[in-house]
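Reply to dn_fold:

You asked what the input looked like. This is it:
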Amino acid sequence: MMKKNYNPENERKAWLFLFPSLAVILVFSIYPLFRSFYMSFQTGTLIRQEFGGIQNYQTVLSDPLFYRALKNTAYFAFGTVPIALIISLAIAWIIFEKVKHKSFFETIFFMPYVTSTIAIGIVFRYFFNGSYGIINYLLGLIGIPAVNWLDSVDMSVTTLIIFGIWTSLAFNIIILLAGLRNIDEEHFKIAKMFGATDWEIFRRITFPQLVPTIAFLLTVNLISAFKVYTQVYALFGGQAGIANSATTAVFYIYDKFHIAGRPGIAMAATVILFIIILVVTFLQNKFLKKVGN
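and this is what came back:
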């Protein structure tokens, strides 16, 4: 039946409609990827480059700052993503199950997602200010001494993780609410008829059916966390924390490319980061498939 309706002209028309999208993907995604890999073997400036072999990779892999950047990135990713997802899941469940005017709260929670990260970072700089910040003021009310959130080597990554958790909530909550709406309400009604508690409903009905949505959010959030840059720039005023204590992999790449003028080293670090993200995402997907089965 399908062979009888097949028309080669339709295939050519389909490719014609797909061409604009494919062209954009090719120019802005595929080409930069191969260009970055090519530049990672070049030395010199952007204007005058020459083949340098694996010299850039040797420089990156022998740079202690790069390893600090990777360590901070890993702390941020594995600290922010699970905590933000757990909090988002709890808030989404409360809104879905307990709140009447859901659309109003969805709008409230979605507003930070469409707000500039730089603007939010400026606000959080006031919140975390060691002298007059509202965070230290609230801590003082319960007898906890003030914390140097922004200008301490030991606290920079922790402050960044807190900021990252807050900025992740909006997107996660909206996606989780969409996933909750896709669950058949009859499941909840039948469970309540048989006297199931809220926790039993969540554990046996809601959570298992949200696993695909949670897997999607884990993948997207983990990739975004490994590419964190804007949050660092916004929170620490264009710097990577005191004494580069909050530098991340992408901030390292930015510094080498735009500040130090070493594009080859920056691209070598980019390729290494790409491989790390690829491996971590692959392992995560393998783990989630085992959990799902």
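Residues 64-98 form the longest helix (35 residues).
Hope that clears it up.
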